[in-house]
Amino acid sequence: MVMAYMQRTLAGPVHFTGPGVHSGKQVHLTIRPAPPNTGIQFRRVDLPAKPYIRAHFSRVVDTSLATVIGENGCIVSTIEHVMACLAGLGIDNAVAELDDYEAPIMDGSAGIFSKAIRGAGIVEQDAPRIYFVVKTPIMLEKPDKSVCLYPAPNFTITCTIVFDHPAIKTQRLSIELTEEKFEQEISQARTFGFLQELEYLKFYGLGKGGSLENAVILDQDGIVNQGGLRYPDEFVRHKILDCIGDFSLLGMPILGHLVLYKSGHLFNHEFLKVFFNNKSAWETRSLVEFESENPRSDDIPPSAAINDREKRSFMEPGNL
Questions:
Q1: 162 is a domain residue
Q2: Which residues are catalytic?
Q3: Model-level pTM greater than 0.85?
Q4: Ordered DSSP codes for 190-247
């Protein structure tokens, strides 16, 4: 995440064409600049009214196979990689126009989106960027998964995934998000799936656009793709990419340390509702306001959040 004082948008439009991973249809996507305080909006230009849908967690209608937003019967599906790219590059305002219901999967990562937007340029706007500043820890947990968000002067993600597969096993990565780190360490990580699941999806008319060109596919023994992986731990990096896209649906960037264990789209969105409704746990501030109220100290590690006693107290049922 870019630590910017002012809101940002694209310097000019960017264009993409590719299949939807589930529909298999060729989709044209154009991302255009937008005025300050627009936020991110999707627009279905194939429909008569060319309706807009705000990219916000309150508009999420499905997370079973991808993140789907909808309003008044109109939907846009599989938006997570587009959203992750815009958030990772610090784009606050943009309109994403599509001529079908599903965003193109491209190569299964956010790398193509990122490269095009960087090529078009990014400009500051005449309005301050406002952040969600985490004041107190907040957690959502189930026996096999958890999401926690702690106070921090930046946006850091620590993600752990566990898969019973020899190519994945347990992977963990912690990264303080900056524009450069997003581009170099996260944006190129591709979505992944298992061969038997892809065959199952296609049997039921889904996953029509999925292929070795836009996903890392695994069989029971290992990786099917001849080119292998882009990163040794590409799987957890892609989970972080998805997480960035999911959490961007809060509508404003976060100052906090996000810790995820075996989470996915559905659980991430459950957490967004818990976070937003727990208004005592956060406040909104511009970066100027935050820095004036929280002078940096070299004696305090940026990731220091809470001590063990506070963790135990917070995890008691009455505090969840």
A1: yes
A2: 265
A3: yes
A4: PPEEEHHHHHHHHHTT--TT--TTSSEEE-SSSB--TT--SSTTHHHHHHHHHHHHHH
Q: What is the CATH number of the domain that holds 48?
A: 3.30.230.20
Q: Give tens-digit pLDDT for 194-214.
A: 988 877 777 667 778 889 999
Strands 254-261, 130-134: pairing is parallel
94 and 139 part of one domain: no
- Cα dist. 133→6, 15, 253, 286, 289 in Å? 16, 34, 9, 9, 11
pLDDT at residue 317, rounded to an integer = 32
Q: Which domain holds residue 78?
A: 6-128
Q: Which residues of the chain have pLDDT under 70?
A: 1, 203-204, 297-320
| pLDDT given at position 35 | 98
Number of CB atoms found within 10 A of residue 278's CB: 13
The whole-number pLDDT of residue 155 equals 98
CB 255 within 8 A of CB 284: no
Give the sheet arrangement for strand 40-44, strand by strand: 14-19, 26-33, 94-98, 40-44, 52-54
Burial per residue of 14-33, b for 16 or more beta-carbon CB atoms within 10 angstroms, e otherwise: bebebbbbbbbeebebbbbb
Q: Rounded to whole angstroms, how far apart are CA atoms 163 and 12?
A: 41
Residue 297's pLDDT is 53
